[in-house]
Design a protein that fits this description.
The chain is α/β, with parallel strands linked by helices and 362 residues long. 42% of the residues lie in helices and 16% in strands. It has 15 helices and 13 strands. The strands form three sheets. It has a seven-stranded parallel β-sheet with strand order 3-2-1-4-5-6-7, sandwiched between helices. The protein has a three-stranded parallel β-sheet with strand order 8-9-10. Helix 1 links the parallel strand 1 and strand 2. Helix 1 packs across helix 15, helix 2 packs antiparallel against helix 3 and helix 8 packs across helix 13.
Length: 362
């Protein structure tokens, strides 16, 4: 595409910081920009941690000046004028969409349904599509596409709402295999969790319980928990209660944690639910095996059990502890998973996922 013929795409996000959906939105802007599209990103909140491409309209800065009811109407007018001025070919809405009245205004007044793509980033689909079947169909049934980031999400939406505009496009992952020197941070053996410290979603309590039951603390393999969130004090207290205070490092959120990821023995995911967890594909792309609970959704579409990691029953602390022990004690299994890590996620590369977006945007 030349600049004269490039399609104009507007990506609407809650923010460009902290979460996996936010990271994937930033990657989407880079991927489509590199494919020749004119990219604009609208961020609802003033939080920009991840690199992005194209122009940015930061509504969060306007919100910081005036978050009154009148201020909210002002932001809606600013966005309405921005969309009208640029006359985008497509709007890709990556936000969590809560509140019937607000989403009615956005979907029926701000957007042109035939040019709008709504993305669903969680198996907890009520965060993105109204839980009432009638209202869900009314708000989103006439959209150009509803993009689910996993097959499980797509199947759930099809079963509940009978949408005929569904498409599955997984989140992309960048090639991280050569980005960091293998010797970086290899001062100690450790496993790692990184993500938002929200225990109701990420169930980090399960991780702490399994780590305490495993042999890892006894053989000096530390646990690093990287992230921010309101539950951090609670989790630190649980670690102390389990007598693990000297075995666990709580580190602040890092927009670029991949030097640590590459140095880790393996990465752990223990969520109650997900969408398409970026931590798993990013870790595998870094050459680091993974251990994950088989939550809905995403892990079973990423992990091939005993090939690039271990997939275990969710909410089973003993099964998770056993999986941790296996990755440490069974060297053949560990090296097999590690050797397969990078190749196992090539299908989620920016090049492959970009082709799927190109086909959709035609």
């Amino acid at each position: 595409m030349t600049k004269a013929t490039a399609k104009k795409i507007c990506i609407v996000v809650s923010s460009l910081g902290v979460g996996g959906a936010e990271r994937s939105s930033a990657l989407l802007s880079e991927m489509l920009f590199d494919l020749g599209y004119e990219i604009h990103t609208v961020s609802v909140l003033d939080q920009v941690d991840y690199p992005y491409r194209g122009q940015l309209l930061n509504l969060g800065k306007i919100k910081a000046e005036d978050d009154s009811v009148l201020g909210r109407f002002k932001r809606l007018r600013v966005l309405k004028n921005y969309l009208r001025t640029h006359n985008f070919d497509y709007i890709i809405d990556n936000r969590a969409r809560n509140g019937l009245l607000k989403e009615f205004v956005i979907s029926k007044w701000l957007y042109n349904a035939k040019k709008t793509i709504y993305c669903v980033h969680s198996f907890h689909t009520d965060m993105y599509i109204h839980r009432n079947t009638f209202f869900g169909k009314w708000l989103y049934g006439s959209a150009f596409k509803i993009v689910a980031v996993s097959h499980a999400i797509s199947d759930k939406l099809r079963h509940k709402y009978s949408f005929n505009n569904l498409k599955v496009i997984h989140n992309p992952v960048v090639d991280l295999s050569e980005k960091y020197n293998d010797q970086v941070l290899k001062t100690e053996d450790f496993i790692m969790f990184y993500g938002r410290l929200d225990d109701k979603v990420k169930n980090i309590s399960l991780l702490l319980g399994a780590y305490s039951k495993s042999k890892l603390p006894k053989v000096s393999i530390r646990l690093k928990i990287v992230g921010s969130g309101t539950d951090k004090p609670l989790l630190m207290k649980k670690a102390e209660d389990l007598n693990l205070k000297d075995k666990i490092d709580f580190l602040d959120f890092m927009p670029d944690p991949f030097a640590l990821v590459k140095a880790a023995c393996f990465i752990i995911l223990t969520s109650n639910f997900e969408g398409f967890p970026m931590v798993l594909v990013e870790s595998l792309a870094s050459g680091t095996p993974v251990v994950s609970v088989n939550c809905k959704s995403g892990p079973s579409e990423i992990i091939i059990h005993e090939h690039n990691g271990l997939l275990v029953e969710n909410h089973n602390v003993n099964a998770l502890a056993t999986a941790m022990n296996r990755m440490v004690e069974d060297k053949d299994l560990y090296l097999h998973c590690k050797s397969n890590a990078k190749d196992s996620v090539k299908k989620f590369s920016k090049a492959n996922i970009g082709l799927q977006w190109q086909a959709t945007l035609k």
